Amino acid sequence: MAVTGAVLVLFLIAHMLGNLKIFLGADSFNHYAEWLRTVGSPALPNRTVLTITEIVLAVCVVLHMWAAVSLARRAAKARPVKYAAKRKSQANGYAARTMRWGGVIIVLFVVWHLLDMTFGTVNPEGGDATPYARMIAGFQPDRWWVALFYLVAMVMVGLHLRHGMWSAFQSLGLTRRPQVRSTLQTTAVAVSAVLVIGFVAAPVCILIGVVK
Amino acid sequence: MNLTLKIWRQNGSSDKGRMVTYRVDDVSPDMSFLEMLDVLNERLILEGDDPVAFDHDCREGICGMCGMVINGVAHGEQKLTTTCQLHMRHFKDGDVITIEPWRAAAFPVVKDLVVDRSAFDRIIQAGGFISVPAGSAPEAHSVPVPKADADAAFDAATCIGCGACVAACPNGSASLFTAAKITHLSLLPQGQPERESRARAMVEQMDAEGFGGCTNTGECTAVCPKGIPFDTIAQMNADYLRAASK
Amino acid sequence: MKFRRRAQQENAQQENAQQENQGAEPAIAGHYRVGDPIRDTKAPEGPIEDRWDKRRFSAKLVNPVNKRKLTVIVVGTGLAGGSAAATLGELGYKVKSFCYQDSPRRAHSIAAQGGINAAKNYRGDGDSVYRLFYDTVKGGDYRARESNVYRLAQVSVNIIDQAVAQGVPFAREYGGLLDTRSFGGTQVSRTFYARGQTGQQLLLGAYQALERQVAAGNVEVHTRHEMLELVISGGRARGIVVRDMVTGEIETHLADAVVLASGGYGNVFYLSTNAKGCNTTAIWRAHKKGAYFGNPCYTQIHPTCIPQSGDHQSKLTLMSESLRNDGRVWVPKRKGDNRAPGDIPEDERDYYLERIYPAFGNLVPRDIASRAAKNVCDEGRGVGPGGLGVYLDFADAIRRLGREAVEKKYGNLFEMYERITGENPYEVPMRIYPAVHYTMGGLWVDYDLQSSIPGLFVVGEANFSDHGANRLGASALMQGLADGYFVLPTTIGDYLAGAGSFGPVDEGDVAEARKAVQDKIDKLLSVNGNRTADSFHRELGRIMWDYCGMERTEESLRKALERIPELREEFWNNVKVPGDAEGLNQALERAGRVADFFELAELMCVDALHRTESCGGHFRAESQDQDGEALRDDEHFAYVAAWEWTPEGPVLHKEELNYEYVKMTQRSYK
Ligand SMILES: Cc1cc2nc3c(=O)[nH]c(=O)nc-3n(C[C@H](O)[C@H](O)[C@H](O)COP(=O)(O)OP(=O)(O)OC[C@H]3O[C@@H](n4cnc5c(N)ncnc54)[C@H](O)[C@@H]3O)c2cc1C
Ligand code: HEM
Ligand code: HEM
Ligand code: SF4
Ligand code: F3S
Ligand code: FES
User: Fold this and answer.
1) Which first-to-last residue range defines the signal peptide (chain B) (predicted)?
2) Which of A44, C224, C571, C579 could serve as C245's disulfide partner, Cβ 3.0–4.6 Å?
């Protein structure tokens, strides 16, 4: 869980940085997309690195989901009879409690997101347009609901990461001392916040017309 | 005050069990929760009914025997409090209170609110000790222990083995209980020689007992009547990883 | 303070003297007979500091190969039983351990708060084995055996080593060394502690050692099993009959020796600081099978407990005595004054301890403080629900030291008080009342901890051994662990060395024990009356508290001896126990225990009646000096009263106490 989660976090950081290039203009962004596909050329055929990344990502997501599902199944087995009274959380851990269905929302988002940005199936510009065009078109004000969906999904991602990262530190046994613990807790919150803001920046700016 | 109780009744481990509603009248706010149940039971006995079975002994929050899920919260909503130390002044006239046993596959129901927690004993058997035969101990002052370590070990050692952590954990995990003992012993110099084998054996036993895995949701430490710190789980994970990587 | 005439006491002494002359003739109007004195307690002769070594050397050893073939039953998993079972398992015996809780870790020892004594002299403040020995004999009001107490003090040192090695997290100082404090009025600092949870930490140490032996296959633990009968065959203890409290099955377990470590019987008073399940059944059954009961009337009452809040009260909670260092005890001067404490002006308050004992004031010893509180409440000046309480007021201390300092010293106790009572002791005075806390009496044992039944050993609070008429604070934990880790494992070996010749257990003896258990259960279930066992227990407790409690008189004890048999009779005709014997039936368990308490209560009253002196925890109002101090009668009562059970009533065997090392003196607190 921690390992696959960590790979996914690294991907997200890279992905966010890439997305921020949108502020540097269409060329820069398209260039970046292009570079993604040609990196390593000519030593490697086009798309090699990208494909490897995609495979690693896909494997991680699958393993991550598999781990999440087996934990959930183990939990169900560990408590075959449920409580009659609604269990009230005592740990004020909203992020912690939304891990499972939050994760599912994220996956649904990714599916839509791929159809939208990578294949262009649900994108007004279609699959053949440049990535920049797809982005701009995707988040036009008349498609505010798409932007909203992205926003909600990003908040989910943020919550998932906030707990997920901290939880990974705990699972690795790094949070034994109170000072270290609070530092790592802050780190998790900060990284998630930066990611959410970084991701949200592009759609919002397009929506309100700062980036055209 | 007058209360309505919805209590889980289950006549033995093979019975399916059901929630049954009772009324108790004239409950004094000074009663403890268990004394309120005593009142109900006295009445049930005189009416020829089967009194509600529940575990308890010390009634002062230290033996770890009592424990029930009250309105969805292990040991009730009062923080750092066992059921026996919960008093009725925290309830209001007319309240409806739901009372259920700890729910976990590793804690099968024996009867009504009584569950079998012997899985905890087996986790301790797996390694929750320091091997020292009587009479062979060195002079107590031969190994000084820094006060900070002694205090932290003590914080972990106060676990009363009640099982509320398991009851509250959404995954039915016994991590906090197991971690408390591992931490207690691994913070002391005396505990070092067996440190890794202990962590490994205890964690494996915990899994073998059918407890769930920990996803760090922290419900356990929030309901723990002794406030066993969350850090203990990190300590357990660290010791376990160290042992497993060898 | 009322001064009672000494004459009554002298009469009683005469009566006693006569009875001695008459040998085994009935005394005190048919309540008991006097049997042969006990002459040999098996303590070795010679200088006191060599006796334990001598005994260890003379004890026969069991061949390691044979140990595996020898089974020892240990009833109880508290400090005494847990440590004994773990150590015997480690030595290689086959051990079967029993407790009524769901885990050995829950035995009542878990609740001990204050600490454990040991003569380590880490402070260099003049402590020594000899001083601990001396303090314990004196504290026990000269009613304990010198040899036993000396051994206890010697072994105390090893207990701390053992516990530390097991990882018991005792309090430490900044240098990393163990911290100690002074406790219960001793002048040296010899009490080791682990915050307010010393009993818990020591018990967990013993429990973990026990579980280690379970994993090693040397010990079998039977939890939720209640011992209901002892099996005697060929004149030796050879097993027990238990009820599996989950399935209801009656099981027989046989062995080469039986150890009882079943704790104290303070719950005969219904309300006490003991856990709800504490009972006398194990030792009472053994007593009825021939084990002598030593000094049953010696009970310790603790002055600072949280008072009862109503009839629903199920147990009492102890508060540390240290509170009396800064709190002032008072009640209203006027009877029935039920104004709020804050509304009672200073000149209408009676700081009665300061008034009666100007020198010691609020710090008079436990028993004096307890009796004084009872007296003012009996006068109708008690406060709180039912008028059973006195104020322990911190207003002055808060004014003098500041709230912060008080909080630092007593914060956790104040919190505990508020949790239970809902009152904030920083703002309103605490209410306290005395409560039964510990029973010094128990099954009589010799120096080897063997009872009068061969093969039956008794350890911990269940025996009568080392505390005489009064136990010092922090000494019960010490005794339990001394017995279990160090003494018993040695002495039982001497007995077991001869085990090969004991022969098989007679089936008739087993059948008889099982039948007794079955009959009692059947009877309890068949009465089908209209009172619960708890209601009888509450009434019995009330009788014991009123008539055989802190202050006893011939009159009150005679009254108790009238009332108890009547109530017992009613119990057997009118108790209602629902359900059946199959499976978990907590009402049945309770009824069985109450039935035994009835019989024990009577013996306690007989013992209290016959001992016309006051000593330690036994205060006969007829025997006090003009200051209200307990007055011992060493000439007639310097003995252990070991009671034998017979169908015709109890028979008293006296074990003379001789003091070679500590000179007997009367204590004084004015
Ligand atoms: C509130 C409180 C505070 C105290 N504080 C201190 C202190 O600070 N220092 C100190 O030295 N002492 C203290 N004491 C006294 C001390 O705790 C006890 O005397 C001591 O722990 C008794 O230990 P034990 O092993 O003899 O018995 P227990 O710990 O009482 O164990 C009895 C065992 O016997 C078992 N048992 C009983 N009956 C049966 C049966 N019929 N069948 C099967 N099993 C049975 C029980 O399951 C249990 O395992 C305190 C006592 C109380 C009540
Ligand atoms: C179906 C989709 C998903 C589900 C059901 C899911 C579920 C979970 C669960 C239950 C955890 C908790 C593990 C623990 O606390 O130890 C978790 C952790 C984590 N998740 Fe997800 N998740 C999903 C998708 C994602 C995605 C897409 C990412 C990243 C982009 C991600 C990143 C993380 C990280 C970093 C962790 C922390 C790992 C750890 O705790 O050891 N997850 N996930
Ligand atoms: C608002 C925030 C986001 C924006 C604007 C965004 C934008 C994009 C764009 C433009 C692409 C296409 C890149 C290309 O084809 O070259 C893309 C691809 C992708 N995005 Fe996002 N993204 C966002 C958030 C996310 C999140 C949160 C995740 C995962 C949890 C994610 C996962 C992916 C994946 C897996 C791809 C495909 C990469 C590949 O084909 O290798 N994105 N994104
Ligand atoms: S960790 Fe806390 S909740 Fe869990 S068993 Fe120990 S005391 Fe109970
Ligand atoms: S509640 Fe459960 S998930 Fe882990 S942090 Fe506690 S064991
Ligand atoms: S009864 Fe002992 S902790 Fe509640």
Assistant:
1) none
2) C224
